[in-house]
Amino acid sequence: MSDSQLSVSAVLAALPSSDLGRSEAFYTALLGKPVDDRPMPVLAQWRWGDFVLQVVEDAGRAGGGLLTLLVPDMAAAVAGIRDRRLPASFDAGTVVAQVAVLTDPDGNQITLVEAR
C-alpha cells in the first residue's frame, strides 16, 4: 500500500429509508434473518462476517439507493425469495451471470448476481 492510499478496514453499505420499521420487515424477509443490531434508533444492521448492510431512516434520500448482493446459488436465492412472497423480477441472465432484481418499499433497487 502506498502512503497516499486510504487504509480501509471495512465497508458498510447503507440504504436510506422513509420508514425504518417497514424497511426492517422487508429486509428481514428478503435476507431470511432478523436484524443483527440497532446501534442507533434510526439504524438497523445485518451482518455477514465483515460485511454489513445498514438501513438508515432518511426520508429525504429514500428511494435512490442501489445494492448488489453476490449469491453463490441463484436458484436457492430465488426459491427463498419466492417462499417469502417478495415481488422480484428474475432473469436467466447471460453467459456471465444470472440476475434477480427487487425493489424495496422506498424504491431502492436490490440486485442479486450469481457469477458463472
Task: Explain how this protein is built.
There is one protein chain. With 116 residues, the protein is of the alpha/beta class. The chain has one domain (12-115): 2,3-Dihydroxybiphenyl 1,2-Dioxygenase, domain 1 (Roll). The chain has two helices and eight strands; from the N terminus they run E-H-E-E-E-E-H-E-E-E. The protein has helices spanning 20-31, 74-83, and strands at 12-17, 37-40, 43-48, 51-57, 66-70, 88-91, 97-103, 109-115. A four-stranded mixed sheet has the order 1-4-3-2. A four-stranded mixed sheet has the order 5-8-7-6, covered by helices on one side. Strand 7 (97-103) and strand 8 form a beta hairpin. The longest helix is centred in the first third of the chain and has 12 residues, at 20-31. The protein is globular, with a radius of gyration of 15 Å. The termini are far apart.
